[in-house]
Specification:
Elements (H helix, E strand, L loop, with lengths): L2 H26 L8 H19 L5 H18 L1 H21 L5 H5 L2 E5 L7 H11 L2 H10 L4 H28 L6 H6 L1 E5 H23 L3 H11 L1
Antiparallel strand pairs: 1-2
Length: 235
């Protein structure tokens, strides 16, 4: 795959992640949408304190991981609105908005990229939805929402399985983008999509049109010898 296209796709995705992160933060800070906001802030503060203790070498990595794994249940339990908000924003942006903009999110517009059909057929909204669900961790979010409905012990088992599955899925998607001939990741293969560089495509189209016009002009252009014959005949 073209390395420049890989870097452009990474750049576009980072821009889009920034957009959806800002939207999620705004939504989840509205009190009537997130009634457990204060509780989540309290748990998050404890997590940040633990993180500082690790950076300052007050606790080692084993202690840190042990405490974080125990705290993750409380964080996700109190932060379920964040998870639901994350799912909603991702589907709205990467699914519905992508469909409405014909495969051009803000990041892709800036980087001159576009999602198109791999079979040269108009894409339906479900193509974008399948793509965004596989690529953006929605499966893991859903697994987490299910897991917090159970006890801590069951939560850890479900969350661990979901986390491993999501990690393997993302690795496969990344490797398939890197090493496939046309740069189509697993999410593209399943959704029937591909990502193209619109700038290169447009330049190629302009060049092709210019060549066609040139050929037409050469066909229409009269030969000098024919003009002389026409003049002799009229005389």
């Amino acid at each position: 795959m073209n390395n420049s296209l890989i870097f452009k796709r990474i750049g576009a995705y980072l821009i889009d992640l920034l957009v959806i992160t800002l939207f999620s933060m705004i939504l989840t800070k509205i009190s009537f949408i997130n009634p457990r906001y204060e509780e989540y802030v309290e748990v998050s503060t404890k997590y940040n304190e633990m993180l500082n203790d690790y950076y300052e070498k007050k606790i080692n990595i084993t202690e840190f991981n042990s405490k974080v794994s125990k705290m993750s249940y409380d964080m996700n339990k109190s932060g379920y609105v964040y998870i639901i908000g994350d799912i909603a924003v991702i589907i709205l942006y990467f699914g519905i908005y992508n469909f409405a903009s014909k495969g051009k999110t803000l990041g892709k517009r800036i980087m001159n990229l576009q999602i198109t059909s791999a079979k040269d057929k108009p894409l339906k909204i479900y193509n974008y939805l399948i793509r965004c669900i596989l690529l953006n961790g929605i499966i893991m979010d859903i697994i987490t929402l299910i897991a917090i409905c159970f006890t801590k012990e069951t939560y850890f088992e479900i969350y661990s399985i979901g986390s491993n599955f999501n990690m393997i899925l993302q690795i496969i998607i990344f490797l398939s983008i890197m090493f496939s001939v046309n740069g189509r990741g697993l999410h593209d293969l399943i959704a029937g999509t591909k990502v193209i560089n619109t700038k290169v495509s447009n330049e190629g189209l302009v060049k092709e049109n210019k060549e066609e016009i040139k050929e037409e002009v050469e066909i229409i252009k009269p030969v000098k010898g024919d003009k002389k014959k026409e003049g002799t005949k009229s005389e």
